[in-house]
Write a structure and sequence with these properties.
CATH superfamily: Aldolase class I
Strand order of the largest sheet: 1-2-3-4-5-6-7-8
CATH class: Alpha Beta
CATH topology: TIM Barrel
Number of helices: 12
Number of strands: 8
Order of helices and strands: EHHEHEHEHHEHEHEHEHHH
Helix content: 40-55%
């Protein structure tokens, strides 16, 4: 298994989109800046979608405008169609992520079109992103189960991945959008997907912790060869169009598990825990993450010679 892993914090986007209120723009900017200071270098910072459907993301352009830019940080804008891509490009995103749902029913609920139409949109967006000189990646959502269609066949996931890979993205992610997967399923899906991906295409995984299997699934994904994992500070989040979906795996809990197991993340865990505490104070409610409550458990100091 890999001895280091990249973590993408999706809290500022996937996390905040389910909040009952709207976090002020200045607080969103502070949230992202805190994460960058803690060592995160890829973050989902906004989604460029219809603000009437996701009002929490209505200030996407203002958030991007308020961020301090650094050469080694990628600020990802989620887009679902060409209009969203054009907005993300104009706002200054240096990476865009498209979502295509493996379930046609869920894709229509989430994006207003079927899976085939979203794949067509992705192929166009990927080409335009390449021409504009920004990175483009795609997530195949509901890859482990759908709230409307139930079980999703592995063959269906592989077919969607294969068609999305035709655009030659630098990365494809598979997402357990409603948190139904288990480690054995992760192993099966990752193995099947890797067979149809070009060797140069990186594989990422995105897990929700709805049924408390998120961390176990993340570890199984690493064992299967996934190089990047999504997580959300404090474990906040969910999907507005997926009934009963809860947050992603908490970034600080994931970092603790990996670092204690000898897998480097490049993230300052204590700074991340402090950000989780700041987040719950800002939101005015407890967050699901465990380390925000329990704190870090430092390694014993090396014994000193007598």
């Amino acid at each position: 298994m890999m001895r280091s892993v990249e973590i993408v914090d999706v809290g500022p986007r996937d996390g905040l989109q389910m909040e009952p209120g709207v976090m002020p723009t200045a607080a969103k900017v502070e949230f992202i800046e805190r994460l960058v200071a803690a060592g995160l270098r890829r973050l989902e910072v906004a989604s460029f979608v219809n603000p009437k459907k996701v009002p929490q993301m209505a200030d996407a352009e203002q958030v991007l405008a308020g961020l301090s830019r650094r050469a080694d940080a990628h600020y990802i804008g989620l887009v679902l169609n060409r209009r969203g891509f054009d907005r993300a490009l104009a706002a200054g995103c240096n990476e865009v992520g498209m979502a295509v749902v493996a379930s046609d029913t869920f894709n229509r609920r989430n994006q207003g079109v079927g899976t085939d139409e979203s794949i067509d949109a992705w192929l166009d967006i990927a080409q335009s992103a390449r021409a504009a000189g920004i990175r483009a990646q795609v997530t195949v959502s509901a890859a482990f189960g759908c709230p409307f269609e139930g079980e999703i066949a592995v063959e269906r996931v592989v077919d969607v991945v294969r068609r999305c890979a035709a655009a030659e993205p630098f990365e494809i992610a598979i997402a357990d959008t409603i948190g139904v997967g288990v480690p054995t399923q992760v192993t099966e899906v990752v193995a099947a997907v890797r067979k149809v991906l070009p060797p140069t295409t990186m594989l990422r995984a995105h897990f929700h912790n709805t049924r408390n299997t998120g961390l176990a699934n993340a570890y199984a994904a690493l064992q299967a060869g996934v190089s990047t994992l999504d997580a959300s500070t404090g474990g906040i989040g969910g999907c507005p169009f997926a009934p009963a979906a809860t947050g992603n795996i908490p970034t600080e809990d994931l970092v603790y598990m990996l670092e204690r197991g000898g897998i480097a993340t490049g993230i300052d865990l204590d700074a991340l825990i402090a950000t989780g505490k700041w987040l719950q104070e800002t939101l005015g409610r407890p967050v699901p993450g465990m380390l925000v409550k329990a704190g870090n458990f430092p390694r014993p100091k090396a014994s000193q010679a007598a």
